[in-house]
Specification:
59% strand, two-stranded antiparallel ribbon, mainly beta, 247 residues
Length: 247
């Protein structure tokens, strides 16, 4: 109930800003906008349980290159993420590089300018996406974490004299594959991970569901896109119903 009240208040607060933002977006050479989500669920994982506002800024020249930033900030203030990315697309195929970074503002928290593989809080992912033609709107995605905080245990070292155990770690190369199909205003999707890593403990289905979208007319010149997603994670036995809107 508390989350619903927060969402309603946010909608009322942001309507005037939304209208102004629409005018600004038409004049700028950048793609700018914000999503407001009832909670942050990503690839079948609940990243933040509270409502999140998710702004983005993208420079997108006409020759297929996109460079931008995307963020997610919890209303409760206990989650903050900023991702930087670059992509290049041609004839439905897009290759991208994303730097995921979750902030921790404690004294011992993640440091943005620490890029050492052993200690960094960054996660670097390379991904390949295929978008089908208009008459067959399928989307295929494959992504692998190849550098940074995506780690798993490499060796366990036992000191019998001191009765102490230490561990060494190596990159887990967490990988995710997804297929999605859109018809009218409905998208269905399914994602798997082929091995133990960030997304799950073994090969399995970790993200499956459906998203419905609708445009609500606010004024003669502005419509508000809304969406609702029913998301399941069969491997972790979880289910989520998430609502959001974009401006």
């Amino acid at each position: 109930m508390k989350n619903r009240i927060l969402i309603i208040i946010a909608i009322l607060m942001f309507v005037p800003i939304i209208l102004k933002a629409q005018e600004v977006k038409k004049r700028l050479p950048f793609e700018i906008g914000t999503d407001l989500m009832s909670r942050f669920v990503w690839r079948g994982q609940c990243v933040s349980k509270s409502p999140n506002i998710q702004p983005y800024l993208v420079y997108a020249p006409k020759f297929g290159l996109k460079v931008g930033a995307w963020g997610s900030y919890a209303f409760t203030g206990d989650y903050a993420e900023v991702d930087l990315f670059a992509s290049y697309g041609i004839k439905g195929i897009t290759i991208s590089l994303t730097d995921y970074f979750v902030m921790n503002e404690s004294a011992a928290g993640n440091r943005f300018f620490d890029f050492k593989n052993e200690s960094t809080g960054h996660l670097l992912e390379g991904a390949l996406t295929y978008d089908g033609p208009e008459n067959f709107p399928i989307k295929l995605t494959a992504g692998t974490m190849f550098y940074g905080a995506d780690k798993k245990i490499d060796q366990m070292i036992v000191d019998t004299v001191l009765s102490d155990t230490t561990y060494t770690y190596k990159n887990a190369y967490s990988t995710y594959f997804e297929v999605a199909y859109t018809f009218r205003n409905i998208s269905i999707f399914a994602g798997i991970t082929p091995m133990e890593g960030l997304y799950g403990s073994k090969l399995g289905l970790v993200n499956a569901g459906i998203t419905a979208r609708k445009n609500i007319k606010i004024t003669e010149h502005f419509t508000l896109p809304i969406q609702a997603s029913l998301i399941t994670n069969p491997q972790r036995q979880n289910i989520y119903l998430v609502f959001g809107f974009t401006f």
